[in-house]
Amino acid sequence: MMSQLPIDDDHAPLYTLGQVADMLRVQQAFLRRLDQHDVISPRRSPGGQRRYSRRDILVVRHVIGMTDQGMTLVAVRRILELEAELDRLREELAEERRRQSRPD
């Protein structure tokens, strides 16, 4: 069986700060500010450089949309926390429904 390659993993830290800034047409300083405000915390290379995954890039796109609507980074961080909590609760509910639907 072929093992999964990093390129197949949405969470693999493959992209540099500069690459992500170019892709999303934002300033590198904006991405650094997102990290400083704990809005998105990309992983670090052995040399300490930020490395973004495809999942991180999707989150940054979502953040750009919210900041374009005038939201502060504090508000954006709270919204992301609440969205994550909602996702977790939805998964718990789905699991409970699966558990209850099983014959005893």
TrEMBL record:
Give the keywords, sorted: Coiled coil, Transcription, Transcription regulation
Q: Name one Pfam family in it.
A: MerR_1
| Highest taxon above the source species | Bacteria
Q: Per its UniProt record, what InterPro entries does this chain match?
A: MerR-type_HTH_dom, MerR_fam
List, for all copies, the residue spans of the domain called HTH merR-type. Answer: 14-82
Which residues, by range, are in coiled-coil regions?
Answer: 72-99
| Protein's recorded name | MerR family transcriptional regulator
Q: Which organism is it from?
A: Nonomuraea ferruginea
